[in-house]
């Protein structure tokens, strides 16, 4: 298991900026699983961070090494639940959560790498491996601890068996039409109104029927920016807004109502992702604006409570925040049980590449619909991946390459590994030279 601290200097162009995170450097705590087959496939996984602390995330992945190195690749690929249960069940490391935070994200990175390897060995893209799988086997991959009061294994099995009806037809539709997408690329908080307007118009011309704006730093600015965005896209394109956890519950209600004239489709992360009752209050108060959350929800148990409390209209799972594919299967099944649409969070480093597989499996073999469902898309950093996400006419095209679309180019790893990759080494040398020049001048 090789690990890498990969960071990109996105803060310098304010890409990814929002009210809570003004200067993110999009980063990946990255790992590669290698077998003793010289020409065999490798398993790639990662979790997403935004700069400082990525070294902590890599250290958490390293702490899991003993649970995977030396195990039978055949056993793990036949049953990825083996490694999921082993990693989550390490009581000494679980103490640091349990099942939340840096350690749980590390578990997700390793588990996702196993699924990548398993899909490659079956020569299938991950979405198809999942869609083709026997419902009984998929249920065996899910940890039902703490969620059986909302979803039992028997109910999950019924949902998956029902999802088999019409699967071949839906797979044909997916391959022909793709999966609907929306874009956040115009809406970063640090962008000028001119850049926002230009990018919003380009998004509509590219076929997107929904865009998203970051809000929450200043109400007057948000009103002005929403007005500019609505003018740019017209009345028929959905406009979602995202506060990135900025507000107290009362503020969330007041602020969302103040933006209501621009017909926002949803308000995303209006308050703390852990505040289930707060989300329920916001949802009741701001309807018909929908409430969406999930990218920072730490595990299936919190998702269960959001659904039980009627606190969300849109579930936004994240491919790398929770414990990997296995836990995301639980979240998809919970959402299907409660009849709530899943619109995955993406963007970041490689999240678009990963999450498309989960949404496509959901369409083909579980929920059976893309109605009111879209996957987020952000147009940056895809060039670093061997099989980048592809958008055509506002939709994700179905990936066909075997695996989880997680492979980064070796050149990108060598360039952006922190702090000794060629980019960061040169950047540090330049900064030191600038400091020396200032001292001499002074």
From TrEMBL:
Keywords for the protein's UniProt record, in alphabetical order: Lyase, Magnesium, Metal-binding
SMART domains recorded: MR_MLE
Cofactor: Mg(2+)
Residues of the Mandelate racemase/muconate lactonizing enzyme C-terminal domain: 193-289
Catalytic reactions on record: L-fuconate = 2-dehydro-3-deoxy-L-fuconate + H2O
SUPFAM superfamilies on file: Enolase C-terminal domain-like (SSF51604), Enolase N-terminal domain-like (SSF54826)
Entries under Pfam families matching the protein: MR_MLE_C, MR_MLE_N
Documented EC number(s): 4.2.1.68
PROSITE patterns (UniProt xref): MR_MLE_2
Cited Gene3D superfamilies: Enolase-like C-terminal domain, Enolase-like, N-terminal domain
Listed name of the protein: L-fuconate dehydratase
Lineage: Bacteria, Bacillati, Actinomycetota, Actinomycetes, Kitasatosporales
């Amino acid at each position: 298991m090789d690990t890498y601290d990969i960071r990109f200097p996105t803060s310098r162009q304010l890409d990814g900026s929002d009210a809570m995170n003004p200067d993110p450097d999009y980063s990946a705590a990255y790992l590669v699983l290698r077998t003793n087959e010289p020409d065999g496939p490798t398993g790639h996984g990662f979790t997403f961070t935004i700069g400082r602390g990525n070294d902590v995330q890599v250290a958490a992945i390293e702490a899991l090494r003993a649970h995977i190195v030396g195990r039978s690749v055949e056993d793990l690929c036949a049953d990825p639940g083996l490694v999921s249960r082993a990693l989550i069940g390490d009581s000494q490391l679980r103490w640091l959560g349990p099942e939340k935070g840096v350690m749980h994200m590390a578990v997700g990175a390793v588990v996702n790498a196993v699924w990548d390897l398993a899909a490659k060995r079956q020569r299938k893209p991950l979405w198809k491996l999942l869609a083709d799988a026997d419902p009984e086997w998929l249920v065996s991959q899910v940890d039902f601890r703490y969620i059986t009061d909302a979803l039992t294994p028997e109910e999950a099995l019924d949902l998956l068996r029902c999802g088999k009806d019409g699967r071949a037809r839906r797979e044909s539709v997916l391959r022909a039409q793709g999966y609907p997408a929306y874009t956040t690329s115009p809406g970063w908080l640090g962008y000028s109104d001119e850049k926002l307007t230009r990018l919003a118009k380009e998004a509509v011309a590219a076929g997107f029927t929904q865009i998203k704006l970051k809000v929450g730093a200043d109400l007057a600015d948000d009103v002005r920016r929403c007005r500019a965005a609505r003018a740019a896209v017209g009345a028929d394109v959905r406009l979602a807004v995202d506060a990135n956890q900025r507000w107290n519950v009362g503020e969330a209600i007041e602020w969302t109502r103040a933006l209501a004239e621009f017909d926002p489709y949803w308000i995303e992360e209006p308050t703390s992702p852990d505040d289930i009752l707060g989300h329920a209050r916001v949802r009741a108060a701001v309807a018909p604006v929908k409430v969406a959350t999930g990218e920072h929800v730490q595990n299936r148990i919190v998702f269960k409570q959001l659904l039980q409390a009627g606190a969300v209209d849109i579930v936004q799972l994240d491919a790398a925040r929770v414990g990997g594919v296995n836990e995301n299967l639980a979240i998809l099944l919970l959402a299907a049980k409660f009849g709530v649409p899943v619109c995955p969070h993406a963007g970041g480093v490689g999240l678009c590449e990963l999450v498309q597989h989960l949404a496509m499996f959901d369409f083909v073999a579980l929920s059976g619909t893309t109605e009111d469902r879209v996957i987020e898309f952000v147009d940056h950093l895809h060039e670093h991946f061997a099989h980048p996400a592809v958008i055509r006419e506002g939709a994700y095209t179905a990936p066909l390459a075997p695996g989880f679309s997680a492979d980064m180019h070796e050149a990108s790893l060598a360039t952006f590994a922190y702090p000794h990759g060629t980019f960061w080494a040169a950047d540090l040398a330049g900064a030191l030279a600038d400091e020396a020049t200032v001292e001499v001048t002074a």
